[in-house]
Amino acid sequence: MRSDLMAKLTRTHCEDTSGEYKDVMISGPHDYLLIELRQEELKDTPDMTSITAEKMNLDNRIFALATNWLLKKGFIKGAVIQYEEGSKMPVGVDLQGVSLTPEGIEYEKKLG
C-alpha cells in the first residue's frame, strides 16, 4: 500500500483533508481482499487461487463473506461461493475465475 495512503489511514487526525485520498476509508476485509485481487490481476501470470483466507490471516467464513460482498457490489465477477448445507451462510470460495470489473478497479484505486 502506498505510504502516503497508509499514513492517512492510520492517523486519528489528518491535517490534509483534500487531494486524492480525501474520502479514503478502508472499512473491512472486503477492501483488503479487493486490493489483493487487483495486485494479483496486474501480474504477468496472475493466479487468483494464490489468494486465500490463510494468506490474508482471515477466518474462512470472513473471507467468503468478503468475497460475497464484492460480488454483490459488482466489484468482481467469476467467484464461486460455497454455502453451508441448508444455509445461506458462505463457508468457502473458489477464486479461480475471478476478475475485477471496471467498477471494482475504480473502487480499488480509491483504496490504494
Structural class, by secondary structure, is: alpha+beta
N-to-C span? 6 Å
CATH class: Mainly Alpha
Strand arrangement in the largest pleated sheet: 1-4
Question: Helical region count?
Answer: 4
Plain-language structure description:
The structure is a single chain. Strands 1-4 form a two-stranded antiparallel ribbon. Strands 2-3 form a two-stranded antiparallel ribbon. The protein has helices at residues 3-10, 29-41, 60-73, 102-111, and strands spanning 76-77, 80-83, 90-94, 99-100. A hairpin with a 6-residue loop joins β2 (80-83) and β3. It has one domain: Orthogonal Bundle (Arc Repressor Mutant, subunit A), CATH 1.10.10.10. With 112 residues, it is of the alpha+beta class. The mean pLDDT is 82. α2 packs across α3 (60-73).
Notable features of this structure?
two-stranded antiparallel ribbon; 4 strands; 112 residues; Arc Repressor Mutant, subunit A
What's the layout of helices and strands?
Blueprint: H1 3-10, H2 29-41, H3 60-73, E1 76-77, E2 80-83, E3 90-94, E4 99-100, H4 102-111
Antiparallel strand pairs: 1-4, 2-3
In short:
The protein is of the alpha+beta class and 112 residues long. The protein has helices at 3-10, 29-41, 60-73, 102-111, and strands spanning 76-77, 80-83, 90-94, 99-100.
